Amino acid sequence: MRTIAEFAIQYEQVLDASGALVGTLPAFAQDTAELVRMYRMMTLARMMDAKAVNLQRTGKLGTYASCLGHEATHVGVGAAMDPADVLAPVYREYGTQLWRGVTMREILLYWGGDERGSDFAGPRHDFAWCVPIATQTMHAAGAAMAFRLRGEKRCALAYIGDGGTSEGAFYEALNLAGVRQLPVVFVIVNNGWAISLPLSQQTAARTLAQKGIAAGVPGIQVDGNDAIAVRKVVAEALATARSGGGPALIEALTYRLSDHTTADDASRYRGAEEVRQAWALEPLVRLRNYLSGLGAWDAAAEQALHDEGTRQVDAAVADYLATPRQSTDAMFDTLFAATPPHLAAQRAMARRYAASGSGH
Amino acid sequence: MTQSAAKLTMIEAITMAHAWEMQADPSVIVLGQDVGANGGVFRATAGLQQRFGSDRVQDTPLAEAMIAGMSVGMAAQGLKPVAEIQFMGFIYPAIDQIVNHMSRMRYRTRGRLHCAVVMRMPHGGGIHAPEHHSESMEAMLCHIPGIRVVCPSSPARAYGLLLAAIRDPDPVMFLEPVRLYRAMRQDVVDDGVALPLDRCFTLRSGSDVTLVTWGAMTLETLRAMAELDKEGISAEVIDVATLSPIDMTTILASVARTGRLVIVHEAARNAGLGAEIAASVAEHGLYDLRAPIQRVTGYDTIMPLMRLEYEYIPNVRRIVDAVHQTFAD
Fold first, then answer.
1. Are B164 and B135 in contact (CB under 8 A)?
2. How far is CA A231 from the centre of its chain?
3. Would you state the pLDDT for residue B5?
4. I need a surface site. Which of A88, A207, A286, B87 has the fewest CB within 10 A?
5. What CATH number matches the domain at B201-327, 3.30.230.10, 3.40.50.2300, 3.40.50.920, 2.60.40.1120?
6. For residue B84, what is the enclosing H or E element?
7. A316 & A334 share domain
8. C-alpha distances out from residue B275 to A23, B221, B270, Å
9. What part of B 80-99 touches A (C-beta under 8 Å)?
10. pTM of the predicted model, to two decimals?
11. Average pLDDT over residues A106-121
C-alpha cells in the first residue's frame, strides 16, 4: 500500500489572547486606523447585543440570539468582504451586517417580530437571516453561480455554525462549490455548542475545516477571537475566489459566551468553569490591548466609544420602539408580485377583523 | 405503579408518557436534538436521559433527515424510535425519509419490514416564537399515505394519545400545539392507559351546530362555544385528534343531528384539512346540511412574525361570525 494523497489543515493566528503579536501582520493591519475601526464595530455590536438581551428580558423584544463572544469573527468577515459581495448569514452575525450597512433598528425589528427588519436599507442584495439550519449555504453557492454566469467579479459568503455542518445541505453546497469552482467562501463559526450539543458529540472529525477536503475545497482554521487573523484568511480566500481560484472553507474557532438564545438556559448543560475559561480568550480585550500597545487606544478613547455607542444603541431602540406595527395588509402584499384575487379577499377580511379590534 | 392523578401541563404529561413507555418497553428509544442533557427545548424529555441513560435517550447531531432516516433503520430492525423534530418548521429535510421510506416500508415489503416510529414536533403558533417556529403544516403530512397524524389538545389526551402512538406498529406524526404546552393544568393519571387513535373526541354535545377543530384551536373554539351558549346557540365541539385517518363517522353523525358545520383550523385554508372534512361531509352528509359549510382558518399567506401573529390565527370573533353565517338565510 502507498499513500496517494495527503492533506493538512493550517491554523492562523496573529494576536494571542493577551494581544501579543504571534503571527505575521497582514498589510491592512499596518493601518492602525483600520484596526480601530474594527475594534469600534466589535464594541458597538456587543453593546447592541447586551441591550437586545435586556429588551427581551423586559418584554420589549421577542426571542433573541445573542452574538456575545463572536464579535471578532463577525467583524473580521465583514471587513474582508467587498460591498458588492453577497452575504448569506445565519442569524447572529450582527457584526458583519452592521459593518455592511444593516442597521441596529432593522436587527431589533426582526427579533421584535416585524418582517420589515429583513428589508435592509443596505446592502440590498444580501440574503436575510436564515433560521432553517445550513440551507443558506446552497443560496451562497447559487449566488456565486449567478456571478460566474454573468462574468461579475463578485463573491458570495455563507456563514454556518458547527452544528450546521452535520446537515446534508452543507455537504451538498460544499460539493457544488468544489466541482464548479464557484466564487464562494463558507465560514464555519465553531463556537463549540449547537444549543446543548458540544462539538465532541456533533462530529468525530479533528477539525471542521477538513470537511472541505472531501469536496475538493481547501479548508483552513483560524482563531475566531482574533479579528485580524479572521479578516486576513477571509480576505485571502475571497481574493482567490474572485480571481477564479475556487471556493474555500474557513473554520473560525470561537465560543458562545451567551445562552443559545434568550429562550435557552445553558446552565442546564454546560459548566460554569468552561465559560469562565472561554472569557479569558474573548475577542475585544486582545485587540484593545494590541491597540493600546501601539499607543492608538486609551481609557479616554474607550470611554468616548462607550458614550457614543450608548447614544447609537439608545437611538436605535427608541426608533424601534416607536415603529408602529404593520397593518394586516402586510401579511398579503409581498407574498406575490401581484396579489391574486383570493388573497385580496382575505386581505379585506383581515382588515375587517383588525378594525373590529378582535385581534389578540 | 403510580395511579394518583396529578395536575399536569401538556408538556409534563408528554414527559410522563415517554417515561411510562420507556419503563414498560425496552425497545423504545428517544432521540433528537437537545433531548438529552437539555431535556428538549420545551422540556418534553426533561429527566429522561438521567433516568434511562444516553443509549435510550440520544442527543443526535443536528440533521433532521438523519433523525428520520436513522429512525427508519432502527425501527425496521425492531426498535421503537420516538424522535423529536425541534419545531415543525424544520421537518422538511426529513420529508424524503418519511414519504419514500417510513410511510411505505410495510407496503413495499408486503409486511416483511415496518416502521413503528413516532415523530413528535411542536406545532402551530401563538407563543411569539421566532421565524419558522410557528408552522401548521399538518395537511402536508396528512397527504402522505401510510402514516398517522395525531394532534392532542389537552394534557390528558396528550398522555393517552402519545402512549397509543408509541404502541402503534405504524409511523405516527405527533403534532404538539406549542400554545397548549403550558396553557392549562389538568388531572392526568399515570396509569399507562392509552387513548384510541383514529377517533374524534366530542368535547361537548350540542344540537344546533357542529364545530370541528384540533390542536390549539380547540381553546378558541371552546371559548366561541361559550359565547354561543349566551346567545342560545348550542354548539357541539369535536376535537379531531387523529388528523389522518379522520374519524368521519363521528363528524357525520354529529352533522346529521345539528345540520350545520363549521371547521376551524390554524393552518392556511388552501388545500387545508378543512377542505378534506368538508368534501367528505359533502359526499356522505350533504342532505343533512341546513346551511353551507363554513371554514375558519389561517390566511393563505406566511405565518407572520409575532407582531401580527394574532391577526393570522383564528379567534373567537371569527368563529362566532362563521356560526352566524350558518344561520343566515
1. no
2. 13
3. 81
4. A207
5. 3.40.50.920
6. strand B80-84
7. no
8. 66, 18, 8
9. 89-90, 92-93
10. 0.96
11. 98
A168 and B93 in contact by Cβ < 8 A? yes
* Domain containing residue A14: 10-325
Q: Percentage of chain A surpassing pLDDT 90?
A: 98
In tens, the pLDDT along A246-303 reads 999 999 999 999 999 999 999 999 999 999 999 999 999 999 999 999 999 999 999 9
pLDDT digit string (tens) for B192-225? Answer: 999 999 999 999 999 999 999 999 999 999 999 9
Q: Which CATH architecture has domain B7-189?
A: 3-Layer(aba) Sandwich (3.40)
Structure letter (DSSP) for residue B295: E
Contacts of B300 in chain A (CB under 8 A): 342-343, 346
Peptide bond into A123 cis (omega under 30): yes
Residue A3 lies in a domain: no
Residues A243 and A358 in one domain: no
**Predicted ipTM of the assembly:** 0.94
Chain A CB contacts of B302 below 8 Å:
331, 335
By residue count, chain A amounts to 360
* Active-site amino acid positions of A: 256, 260, 269
**CB A197 to CB B317 under 8 A?**
no
Residues A144 and A201 in one domain: yes
pLDDT > 60? residue B79: yes
